[in-house]
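Run log, item B.
One chain of 233 residues. Sequence copied directly from the ordering sheet:
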Amino acid sequence: LAIQAEKSVLPKRGELLIETFPRGQRFYMVAYPFEGRLAHQTLGMLLTRRLDRAGAKPVGFVATDYSIAIWGLEDIGAMIGAKKLSMASLFDEDMLGDDLEAWLNETYLLKRTFRACAMIAGLIEKRHPGKEKSGRQLTVSADLIYDVLRSHEPDHILLEATRNDAAQGLLDIGRLGAMLARIKGHIRLKRLDQISPLAVPVMLEIGRESVSGSADEDLLAEAADDLISDAMG
């Protein structure tokens, strides 16, 4: 923690620390909400949409229980410095409105959740006397009903139940919304020339996702050594 305070800053209670720094051919933004992996994954999807619209050209993100790292082709810190991007706008609560709805409609998340709701409600059945539907048949049936309801009865109780189930069980929207409200006016940005000690664990998650094969441990150990050396040096 002492090295983190020396190289960057330590986040205060109720404050969201955001660090930006270059590494290799990419530019990184690391935030430390401490709200859990599920809420951070949802936040990552919504932030990358907003960063893409702002021209930051995000490439990907990873989330841990306490932080989220987003990397892209444009220097997010420089964009903020040039007032091309605002942290307050980027983390505004309104991301849980149109951005969330648009993202959900672009993914299969709601359709997968609707399938479970439809089976519970008896709209689709897996088993009939002497016959059992395959997983593909169930998916086609559920998707067809979902599309019809969305087009003709968007306020149908099953669609409402689907959104509620997705928000509570899969996206942790309640926790994310509370965090966005809490940090309003309390975002602290720190532009760095290199990675900070606090960012090392989430940056290692990027390595774990991209490395495969028998050399995993050696390559990850080498990557960890490089990250720690840069953060502490």
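Observations after the first pass:
- The first strand starts at residue 16 and ends at 23.
- The chain has two domains: 2-91+183-232, 100-173.
Flagged for discussion on Thursday.
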